[in-house]
């Protein structure tokens, strides 16, 4: 678990610190990274997360409702985060809306990141007995572009570097905190198998929304791109390999 916490935190925090010294300009490369990460996350949701949820569906038919709830919960969170979870960068220095109050970005992103972290406690309580490292990789692939997008936005609306680093630190700490808290609640038998599966279902719905939105936003004109197709296949193939090897 210590390794998971270190990877979750520093993959985001170091990305933020790097961007403070050298603002990100490689939007084209970010798009390819997003497609790869979105394909990986979508594939992992289909072959790993949902099977674990629906393994119990015969005993608890309401689990499917929580997947749906998670999908629309993510839609609601993105009203405040402006789509930063899937690398969507909105930069407007004269913003008078949500971006003028970046605390809303931080809260919505941190809620989502916290829920992601809870999933990494899952080998202790649900069906699969193998390592959660494949899921850890998926979360990191998704959080790095989110960190890039968040830092790019904060740099455009914040003048205080201390405050900006504090925001990045809180966002970086959200997933490790979710992992630590869920693991502790499981250990003291406060978080039952059913409650954890409900969390699992909700975050599965979150991931479905994020991964499918990435595909939509990276191809708004719906034209077939061989490059995008190949990157997507590569992401899915690596998710399959990671599921069996990690």
TrEMBL record:
Tell me which species this is from.
Agaribacillus aureus
| Entry membrane topology | Multi-pass membrane protein
Q: Which InterPro entries match?
A: ZIP
Name of protein: ZIP family metal transporter
UniProt keyword annotations, A-Z: Membrane, Transmembrane, Transmembrane helix
A Pfam family that this protein carries is: Zip
Lineage runs: Bacteria, Pseudomonadati, Bacteroidota, Cytophagia, Cytophagales
Transmembrane spans: 6-21, 33-51, 63-81, 102-122, 134-157, 164-182, 194-216, 228-245
Give the primary localization class: membrane
Q: Where in the cell is it found?
A: Membrane
């Amino acid at each position: 678990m210590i390794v998971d916490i270190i990877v979750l935190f520093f993959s985001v925090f170091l990305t933020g610190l790097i961007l403070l010294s050298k603002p990100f300009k490689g939007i084209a490369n970010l798009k390819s990274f997003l497609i790869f990460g979105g394909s990986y996350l979508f594939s992992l949701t289909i072959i790993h997360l949902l099977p674990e949820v629906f393994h119990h569906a015969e005993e608890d038919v309401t689990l499917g409702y929580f997947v749906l709830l998670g999908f629309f919960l993510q839609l609601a969170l993105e009203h405040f985060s402006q789509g930063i979870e899937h690398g969507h960068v909105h930069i407007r220095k004269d913003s008078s809306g949500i971006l003028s109050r970046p605390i809303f970005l931080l809260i919505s992103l941190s809620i989502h990141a916290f829920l992601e972290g809870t999933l990494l406690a899952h080998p202790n309580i649900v069906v699969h007995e193998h390592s959660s490292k494949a899921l850890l990789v998926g979360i990191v692939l998704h959080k790095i572009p989110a960190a890039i997008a968040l830092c790019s936005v904060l740099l455009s609306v914040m003048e205080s570097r201390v405050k900006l680093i504090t925001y990045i630190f809180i966002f970086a700490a959200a997933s490790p905190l979710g992992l630590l808290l869920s693991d502790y609640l499981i250990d003291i038998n406060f978080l039952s198998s059913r409650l954890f599966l409900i969390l699992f279902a909700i975050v599965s719905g979150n991931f479905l929304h994020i991964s499918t939105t990435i595909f939509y936003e990276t191809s708004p004109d719906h034209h077939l791109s061989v490059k995008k197709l190949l990157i997507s296949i590569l992401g899915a193939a690596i998710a399959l390999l990671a599921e069996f090897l990690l």
